[in-house]
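#data-curation
PF: Archiving a pair of folding outputs for the training set. Convention for this channel: one message per protein, sequence first, structure tokens after, nothing in between. First:
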Amino acid sequence: MASLSEEDFSCPVCQEIFKNPVVLSCSHSVCKECLQQFWRTKKTQECPVCRRRSSKEEPPVNLVLKNLCESFLKERNEVRSSGSEEICSLHSEKLKLFCLEDKQPVCLVCVNSQKHDNHKFRPIDEVLSSYKEELNTALKSLQKKLQHNEKTKGEFEKTVRHIKSQAERTERQIKQQFEKLHQFLRDEEEATITALREEEEQKKQMMKEKLEEINTHISALSHTIKDTEKMMRASDVCFLKELPVSMERVQISSQPDPQTPSGALIHVPRYLGNLPFRVWKKMQDIVQNTFTPVFSVTQSFRNHSNMLIYYQ
């Protein structure tokens, strides 16, 4: 493995270590993903290296090459983790230059490799301070941004708590205000029903008196009828003797009959006529006193739409 370089395990398309390599009928190997992308672009099943047409739509995986690549990556990682980062993993030479295109340290052998063809290089010492300064500047910017984000997070959390407090307080106020409205409606209902009951009692008492009057009238008529019938059955002399008295009683009993008094029935429209409107009119003072602060905030929000208003 030590005699092989990274180029021996690099895909000819992506120039990276093979990932899931497949072997074509021409014996060239390519990353499966790279091959599929190449075929989709070219719209033809040919080898990216020699342009020979592949006979298979699904080339087989090159297991040998795949295992070698895995072994190579494992060995390279072990070398890097052992503290040998200053040695080129491809050529085992000391890293002295820095590739400006790839942004990676390279050895003197890498300079002439195909992978770095036409690339520009600088000594590591030359670029180290400038890159450290650049990275340090970026780091300070990130630190400031982190502090700002943490402060903003605190404000957000505070706003969330305030929103919860607002919602709870507003819910209590809503319930209180609706309870006032409900209580007003209950009181208004009770007052209206009380007035109805009072009128009912008045009308019933009036009709009770009329009933007593007509009962007296009926009793008098009954007695007059019985006495008159009895007199009609008496002898002629008795009939004529009692005639003046009987005629007087009959005339008295023939007076007009009692009539149903005017306004005897319940004045229903007084209670049901425009009931919702009349109640609403009475509610105006309560509504104005209850909701004026909300209207004021709403109007203020309209006048200052760019300002954030918290309704306490």
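PF: Second:
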Amino acid sequence: MQAPLVVDATIRSAARIKGAEAGGLAPGYTRFYVEADVLALIRGDTPVPPRVGWLVDAPNDARGRPPRLRRLRVIAFARPVPGRPAQLQLVTPQSQFDWTPQTVERVRQVVRDTLAPGAPPAITGIGNAFHVPGSLPGEGETQIFLLTANNDPVSLSILRRPGEERRWAVALGEIVDDAAGPPQRDTLLWYRLACGLPRDLPATSTANEEPARAAIAREDYRFVLDQLGPCRETPGDAPLVMR
């Protein structure tokens, strides 16, 4: 989302950068200037020449040796360099990822979701939350209203029924669809929730609730966070980390 250009390319050459030009390099990384042949422009309105170059900080292998980047197919998240059409700047020094079918499909899907009308907005906080008990013991529904960057309505609903697992859903709009469910992992909506929701339900969100109902609302909110999973992947997981 920070990158105006997302490029699918094969690295043609890689020159190691040393000395002062490698200033600020993180431990365990080597800086390269790479030139790459563009295979596809996954995202971008700016024309890109067939061959482009950029600086990248690439992780060393387990023995501390610099990686071999030549002929490697990569996905680069970048921005154009003004006045230098054949050069790009990565949005972060490590915004180059090895190409895999899974990674490129994930990237394409997120780009489609980002550009689509009604794209899930960024979550900025939590508004009111309340729990309504049902007619049977252990039955009830919690609703949590989220605050968003563009003020579009987003809400969570958590349904409890005796003898059943809790179910939850997210609604983008004023009306909660009974057939709605949780977002699929690694989609833009999942990312907005997993990375945008605070770790705890603010006390102000349940200030008008009875203590027992407020406690259930907090439990249901924690249930949603557990179901979403962590925002960032841990080392050793798939190479793409959405920040």
